[in-house]
Specification:
The chain is α/β, with parallel strands linked by helices and 106 residues long. Helices cover 42% and strands 16% of the residues. The protein has helices at residues 6-13, 27-32, 43-53, 68-79, 91-98, and strands at 2-4, 20-23, 39-40, 60-63, 85-88. Strands 1-5-4-2-3 form a five-stranded parallel beta sheet. Helix 3 (43-53) packs parallel to helix 4.
C-alpha cells in the first residue's frame, strides 16, 4: 500500500482532482479532531460500509490517530479491488505536529 506523510498529504489535497479522505477512528475521536473534508467510517464498521460507500475508481486516503487502524482499512480496500489507496503515516497526531497545530492532540 502507498503511504503519505502529512506534508505530502497537504500537497495532494491542494491539487485539483478528487480524493476520498476517510477517517477510521471512533466517533468520540472524530468529535475531538478531524481533517477538513473527511468522512467518518469507523474501523469496526469498515467491512460493512467502506466498499459500499467509497468509489473504487477514485483515490482513497485513510487516516486514524497514529496510522495503524487506517493501514488495516487500506489493506482491506486493496483486497477488495480498490486500486488507489493510501495511508497517512502517523495519522492525525502527526498531522497536528507537522502541518496544522490547531488540530487538537489527544
Amino acid at each position: 500500500m502507498k503511504e503519505l506523510n502529512p506534508s505530502e498529504l497537504q500537497a495532494r489535497l491542494s491539487q485539483p482532482g478528487p480524493v476520498q479522505l476517510v477517517d477510521v477512528r471512533q466517533p468520540e475521536e472524530w468529535a475531538l479532531a478531524r481533517l477538513p473534508g473527511a468522512v467518518l467510517i469507523p474501523l469496526g464498521e469498515f467491512v460493512a460500509r467502506g466498499p459500499e460507500e467509497l468509489d473504487p475508481g477514485q483515490p482513497v486516503v485513510l487516516y486514524c490517530h497514529h496510522g495503524m487502524r487506517s493501514a488495516q482499512a487500506a489493506a482491506y480496500l486493496l483486497s477488495r479491488g480498490f486500486g488507489d489507496v493510501t495511508n497517512l503515516t502517523g495519522g492525525i497526531d502527526r498531522w497536528s505536529l507537522e502541518v496544522d497545530p490547531t488540530v487538537p492532540r489527544y
